[in-house]
């Protein structure tokens, strides 16, 4: 099959990926008439569309982030649906709560738009479901051979070792509000850290929603203490969005250990740039081995690359004699939540 075989199912447009046969976009970056959304991160899920189709959890998350009127019409994805003669189905992506891949079927051809995905177990969401397909659209956030993420449990063990070694210093961990913050909390609980975890106010509503959905986060308390209270904290872990570390909020903590949870913490330049003392390589994206392993497992006729670096992956495709195409879509970020 050549790329032209797939143009009735998918085309890259300035708004994002477009399905001509079904007349809908997937994760568009501009307002459109009908949008299918893979998950709730802002570089995929935006307000202003006329109609939005997504998992129920993603719709709830969009309402939390943008308000209940983020779209004129919303529809929860359930089972296989017919959109303009295109059979559409949603499948777990293993990225964050509610995240899905979108599969399109028509005329004996199947295309899968993965959104962001992970092959590492995450108790907050269903694991990635491999969907046999002719065309696979993959992210490339960490699409360089240097990215081989360690087990997240090992990173949490390093954090807890530091908490025990420096009990008088609060450990402040930067983590994105949707997905990463809750992932760090769950990993801490799995490691036996059953004391209260303090969270910045920007994380509260999304943490509450995870709890409502049955995700066990344990005892969470607001990180709204004053400087005097902050000084009394011992063996404390405080989680906040990265933006909070540039605000006066952080000044209430005396000599904190500053950490950041991200796949980018594998790059020393990023660690220095953020002034991070405790880099935690914890990612909700596929690293290089999982990315290339997924492509080998699915073995599509062709794959398209979006959301990140494509040069190394295009080289890998050439060496593997696989057809690939970089999309160069504008407006997407790489783990910028």
Concise summary:
The chain has helices spanning 56-66, 152-165, 180-190, 201-212, 227-232, 268-274, 288-298, 311-320; strands at 11-13, 16-19, 24-26, 34-36, 51-54, 73-76, 81-83, 86-92, 100-106, 109-113, 135-140, 171-174, 197-199, 220-222, 237-240, 257-261, 278-280, 302-308, 323-326. The chain has 337 residues and is an alpha/beta fold.
| CATH fold call of the largest domain | Metallo-beta-lactamase, Chain A
CATH superfamily of the largest domain: Ribonuclease Z/Hydroxyacylglutathione hydrolase-like
Contiguous low-pLDDT stretches (5 residues minimum) are: none
Question: SSE order, as H and E?
Answer: EEEEEHEEEEEEHEHEHEHEEHEHEHE
Number of domains: 2
What general outline do the C-alpha atoms trace? globular
The secondary-structure class comes to alpha/beta
Structure commentary:
This protein is an alpha/beta fold. It has two domains: 3-146 and 285-326, Ribonuclease Z/Hydroxyacylglutathione hydrolase-like (Metallo-beta-lactamase, Chain A, 4-Layer Sandwich), CATH 3.60.15.10; 152-280, 3-Layer(aba) Sandwich (Rossmann fold), CATH 3.40.50. The chain has helices at 56-66, 152-165, 180-190, 201-212, 227-232, 268-274, 288-298, 311-320, and strands at residues 11-13, 16-19, 24-26, 34-36, 51-54, 73-76, 81-83, 86-92, 100-106, 109-113, 135-140, 171-174, 197-199, 220-222, 237-240, 257-261, 278-280, 302-308, 323-326. Strand 7 (81-83) and strand 8 form a beta hairpin.
